């Protein structure tokens, strides 16, 4: 499928958004455990041809390569891939790094044994197009593995908190946390994937002792939150945004005074491509 001019402009905005802030710092601060969890669930073995879609800095790609898999890490944002390359070099790992749009993957049909994505493909705006691409590049009998934030968990609530401060989404775009819904996944993939794992779990975050530290970290490092706050500021709603984010942090804190703790729910889904 050929990207339209409007689609090209949309992806350029997405690319710029994810290059904003400091996503690699977020990975180092609390997201690192997610990549190995997905790799474990996919049961990767040496020699597997693996595609990591929307790989970011390689949070799942690097542990996959460490197992001896032949890994291609793809992402829309070259700045994130550059950080991933540095991490791979420091660890002595060899991977292929490819700039690619999850909705228009530049790979041949049935060319991978495992196609996976850890909190990555869920952020491509057109869900069906992305799901179709994941299926297309995975060989029949191969595995598709996804780790996505859930719509009714903490990140789903964060996006709901930010939504009033963001500009209207482009036509056809769907909310990212829908990928963490079992029903939504079944609708996207139909009978093309036989799901063998559909498990919900949480990533426990204790990196921010002060209750509002979590929100401040997101406004400093996380592209979608930075974009939402910037749009709020353009409309004179910066203080309202900050207050809403503070209230969100207070609502989701599961810790004690001086020891905030957050539970970020995700759906781990692994299935066989029919």
UniProtKB/TrEMBL annotation:
Coiled coil: none annotated. Residues 50-142 form the Methyltransferase domain. InterPro entries: Methyltransf_25, SAM-dependent_MTases_sf. This is Methyltransferase domain-containing protein. It comes from the Bacteria. Pfam families: Methyltransf_25. GO terms for molecular function: methyltransferase activity. It comes from Modestobacter caceresii.
């Amino acid at each position: 499928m050929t990207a339209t001019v409007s689609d090209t402009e949309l992806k350029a905005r997405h690319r710029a958004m994810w290059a904003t802030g400091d996503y690699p710092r977020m990975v180092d601060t609390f997201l690192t455990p997610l990549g190995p969890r997905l790799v474990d669930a996919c049961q990767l073995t040496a020699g597997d041809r693996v595609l990591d879609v929307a790989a970011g800095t390689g949070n799942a790609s690097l542990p996959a390569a460490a197992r001896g898999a032949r890994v291609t890490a793809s992402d829309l944002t070259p700045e994130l891939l550059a950080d991933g390359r540095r991490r791979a070099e420091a660890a002595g790992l060899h991977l292929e790094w490819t700039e690619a749009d999850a909705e228009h993957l530049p790979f041949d049909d049935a060319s991978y044994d495992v196609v996976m994505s850890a909190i990555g493909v869920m952020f491509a705006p057109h869900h069906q197009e992305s799901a179709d691409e994941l299926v297309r590049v995975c060989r029949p009998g191969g595995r598709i593995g996804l780790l996505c934030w859930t719509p009714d968990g903490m990140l789903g609530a964060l996006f709901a908190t930010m939504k009033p401060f963001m500009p209207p989404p482009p036509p056809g775009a769907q909310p990212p946390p829908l990928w963490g819904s079992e029903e939504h996944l079944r609708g996207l993939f139909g009978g093309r994937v036989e799901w063998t794992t559909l498990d919900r779990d949480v990533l426990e975050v204790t990196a921010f002792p002060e209750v509002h530290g979590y929100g401040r970290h997101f406004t400093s490092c996380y592209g979608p939150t930075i974009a939402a706050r910037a749009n709020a500021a353009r409309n004179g709603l910066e203080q309202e945004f900050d207050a809403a984010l503070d209230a969100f942090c207070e609502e989701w804190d599961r810790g004690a005074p001086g020891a905030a703790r957050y539970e970020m729910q995700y759906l781990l889904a692994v299935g066989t491509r029919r």
